[in-house]
Amino acid sequence: MRRRHLVVLCVILLWLPMLSGCRTRSFLSTKQEIELGKEGAREVEQEFRVDTTSPDAERVRRIGESLLPHMDRRDVPYSFKVLISNQINAFSLPGGPVYVFRGLLDLVGNDDSALACVIGHECGHINARHVARHISTDIIHSALISILFPNANVQNAVGLVDQIIQLKYSRDDEYEADWRGLSYAYYAGYDPNGLIRFFHKLELVEKWEGGNNTPEWLQDHPLTPERIKRAEWIIAHHDYRYGH
């Protein structure tokens, strides 16, 4: 092994203890996150039609923007858009873009507090830099593999854009995003119990469909009794610590 590769390997090995969980520090800059989000948004909006003029679109923008003053990260250009699809789903991209599917809006109905908690949850992923952390971990792993196995076909960071929407967050990521989302919604004047109501609606949908067609939001955000209990504990103990 060349001396330069040995030095790089030693540096990477120093990072490895940090890769055991979701708390890997991101070494992507804010500018890189924003650019990655823009690229991801272009791909999303080529695949799905974006609703920009309906009352639903205005509602999502209004609620999303009402959460902004209560977030702890304000260095990215947030945007809130509706995608015309019956999927029950919502997701965010690094650097600010947040998307809500029409199917999820139909499920939420007129419950603005539930919608605020869902949007707040997605903003929580942005604020916690969850995607950037996952990408940083993948970059380090790829670099290590390329040094140890020079002939291996390793995916680079740019290729990760296609995987962002399908990213499976860790359980700790989801708990943190729930906590942050509840905080943003509460301080913006919404009822944090909206998240609990939304969870129960998702459970009903899954039962109606016999578990064969699990809603997209459940697939991306595994719903467990423990997750609901944690949200209920936060609300009961008034522990809205994130961002405040």
From TrEMBL:
PROSITE patterns per record: PROKAR_LIPOPROTEIN
GO cellular component: membrane
Any one GO molecular function term: metal ion binding
InterPro entries: Mito/Outer_Membr_Metalloprot, Peptidase_M48
Peptidase M48 domain sequence ranges: 57-232
GO terms, biological process: proteolysis involved in protein catabolic process
Cofactor(s) in the UniProt record: Zn(2+)
Cofactor notes: Binds 1 zinc ion per subunit.
Superkingdom of origin organism: Bacteria
Keywords of the record: Hydrolase, Metal-binding, Metalloprotease, Protease, Zinc
Pfam families reported in the protein's UniProt record: Peptidase_M48
Family per similarity comment: Belongs to the peptidase M48 family.
Protein name: Peptidase family M48
Natural source organism: Chthonomonas calidirosea (strain DSM 23976 / ICMP 18418 / T49)
